[in-house]
Amino acid sequence: MKRKMNDSTVGYLFILPMVIVMIIIAIPLIQSVWMSFSDYYLLSGSRTHAFIGLENFRSVIGQTHFWKMTRVTAYYTLYSVAGKMVLGLLVALLLNSKIKGKGFVRSLIVIPWAMPGIVVAMLFTLALDPAYGMLNYLLEKTHLITQGIPFLSDVDLALPVVVTIGIWKNFPFTALMLLASLQGISPELYEAGRIDGANTWQQFRFITWPMILPVWLIMLILQIVGTIKEFDLIYLVTRGGPDLATNVIGLDIYRNAFKFFKLGVASAEGMMLMVICFVFAIVYYRYELRNG
With a threshold of 0.85, does the pTM exceed it? Predict the structure, then answer.
């Protein structure tokens, strides 16, 4: 009986740090929920903030740019996630094939993912500058353009460019996860496929893809959750401009909170974003529970 109690005590001690962390996380979360239902304006000078129900959520939906922001966020998430998943899969397949220098290439593709966001933003801001950027210089030298293209200040180009930067920055993580999954496939399966006359495409379709699909789906859900709330890279590159062309919901939360000091409205936006992420988290949990 004493030994059983000691084992239980040890078990509780092991989970104690996580319980403490969860409590620390819960405190600001609960405060944010309260702020989303209260008249919380930082410059009001009042220490008390009245409960106003769903008024902050109505204010969010009533913003003149709300639907544009929603479309921009959906566009950024859809194309960014698609690019990361497709490019990550192609790179993983390439690194899993019999090519020379795979170790060197594998080290190279980690660089974008390992670079701090501020460094990536500075590199692309300089490279895409219409006056002295490297990309415009190369395009002019090859006579593809006659004058510099304002990639980051053009309303039609800014969002696709930011999506491309996001893909370049984050696809290596997906590639490495899928590569690990590919390397776990038994070579005997491919040998049996070749004996049966399967070509390269058929081996991918009937052997490779079914084997890596569970990992691919998990990465897809994680990428959606991570991308839909991205903020730092977009803020550093375009500040949400030009004309709110790259204003995703994460950037709008920052603007309402720290530019207009409307912490109640910002908290309401944060709660809406959290609900969206929570839906995908439930999908991820149910998938893991079913296939775990």
Answer: yes
